[in-house]
Design a protein that fits this description.
CATH architecture: 3-Layer(aba) Sandwich
Protein name: Sulfurtransferase
InterPro entries: Rhodanese-like_dom, Rhodanese-like_dom_sf
CATH superfamily: Rhodanese-like domain
CATH topology: Oxidized Rhodanese, domain 1
Largest sheet: 5 strands, parallel
CATH class: Alpha Beta
Distance between the termini: 34 Å
Order of helices and strands: EHEHEEEEHEHEE
Helix content: 25-40%
Strand order of the largest sheet: 1-8-7-2-4
Keywords: Transferase
Radius of gyration: 14 Å
Number of strands: 9
GO molecular function: transferase activity
Structural class: alpha/beta
């Protein structure tokens, strides 16, 4: 098991994508809400045999930490026969929620847990809009409507 006080760190979206596509054991976990998945879209792999795990870190609409996040994630990982030392990459809208989720799971996971720093939609631009500065969608990485 990893040191509970450590965490593998942030990865920018293109570096994360490279690591995810080069390692078939690496797992992408989207921790946004059901509403975000439905209305904004979800990341995907070009390989149809791989999927993205969707588990809310904060539950909508209260936006409180999902008390059974770790349990739900473990169930999803077990159902997919994910090796206990596989690298996990966490993604949210902008990299804040996914950072907290990655740090939390580091405490119970043997492999490295990474945060995808700019998230799915990225930072806000000068017009206070997301999706134009950085992030998964802006990088042109594969995604789909839910």
């Amino acid at each position: 098991m990893t040191d509970p006080d450590s965490y593998a760190g942030d990865k920018e979206v293109l570096e994360a994508w490279h690591l995810l596509t080069q390692n078939p054991n690496a797992v992408l976990i989207d921790v946004r809400t059901h509403a975000e998945w439905s209305y904004v879209g979800v990341p995907m792999f070009e390989d149809p045999a791989r999927d993205v795990i969707l588990v809310e870190w904060l539950s909508y609409p209260a936006m409180q930490v999902n008390a059974d996040f770790g349990e739900r994630l473990k169930k999803e990982l077990d159902e997919r026969n994910i090796l206990p030392d596989a690298p996990l990459f966490f993604l949210c809208r902008s990299g804040v929620r996914s950072l907290h989720a990655a740090i939390e799971i580091t405490k119970s996971w043997q492999g490295p847990c990474y945060n995808i720093a700019s998230g799915f939609e990225g930072d806000m631009d000068s017009k206070l809009q997301r999706g134009h500065c950085n992030g998964w969608k802006q990088a042109g990485l594969p995604w789909r409507q839910f």
